[in-house]
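Entry: 1D-myo-inositol 2-acetamido-2-deoxy-alpha-D-glucopyranoside deacetylase
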Amino acid sequence: MGTTTAMTNRAAAYPSGRILFVHAHPDDETLITGGTIAKYVREGADVMVVTCTLGEEGEVIGDEFALLTSDQADQLGGYRVLELSRACSALAGTDGVGTLTHQFLGGAGRWRDSGMAGTPAAQNPRAFVNADMMVAASELAAIICDFQPDVVTTYDPNGTYGHPDHIRAHAVTHAAVELAASGHMDHVWDVPLLYWSVIGEETHRQALDSVGEVPRDWLRDTSGGLGLFPDHRITTRIDIRPYFRQKVEAFRAHATQVTVSDDGASFALSNKIAQPILGEEHFVLARTSPHATADGAPTSELLVRKA
C-alpha cells in the first residue's frame, strides 16, 4: 500500500526522518540509547520509544522505595511509569525541533516484567517471556505500520545481558518488522534499517579505566554485569557528548533503578557495580530492506539526512 496523505505530510515535516526504539523496561531507553534519542529529537526527527513492560520485577535502590517491590505492595510498575515520563521529558529537552512520543506495547500493563531467568516471576502467565509471539509481534507491527519509521532499533539476540524480556523484545521486534512488510496487516511498511543497540567491550573498558572517584560502596568490574559486544562488529557509533547532560538527567529520573555519581561520569544499578556513562552509543546494522536507499548505513548516523 502507498503512504497515506497524512503520513506524507508528517514525513515532510520531519526531514531528518523517523526512528523507533524498542525496549523491555523503563530505564532501558536511557541506559542504552538515551543520548541517541536526545540527539535525533534535537535534530528534528520524529522519535518514538516503545516499552514492552512496566518493569514490575526490578530491584530498587534505597529504603524509600522498598515497599514498592513485587514481594511487598507490588506498586513498582506504576511508579516506574512516572520515572519513564520524567526521563523522556529530559531526553526531549526544551530546544529540540523534533518530537518524542512513548507507548507501552499493547497498552500499559499488557505484559508483565518476567524477572531474571529461573525466577518465579517468569512463570506468571502475563510475563512478557510467555507472550504469544504472534500477538506481541502484531501489536508492534501495527505501531510500525502507523509510525512508518526509517529506522527501528532493539537488542542483540542475547538481549544485551541475557534478561529474558530483552531476548523476547529482540525476537518480537524482528518478527514485527517482517510482519509489517508482509502485507498481512491493514497497512504495509517495509522498515529500511533495523539495528541492534549494543555496548562496545573495548570502549567500555577504556571508559571504565578513566572513571574517577566513585561512591565508597560501589564496586569496580570490567563488565559491570553487562553483556559487552566486540567493538569490531559495531557498525555505527553515535557521538552523544552534546547530549550528555540530558542523558544524565534522564538517568536520575529513574531513581528506583539507577544512582549517578556526583560528577555525573558514572552510574550504578542496584548491584552497585560502577559503570561509565559513555560519550558514544553503539549499534549494529542487523537488517536492511531491499528498498533501502543506496546510501546504506552511515557509520556515525542511524538516519540518512534527507535533502
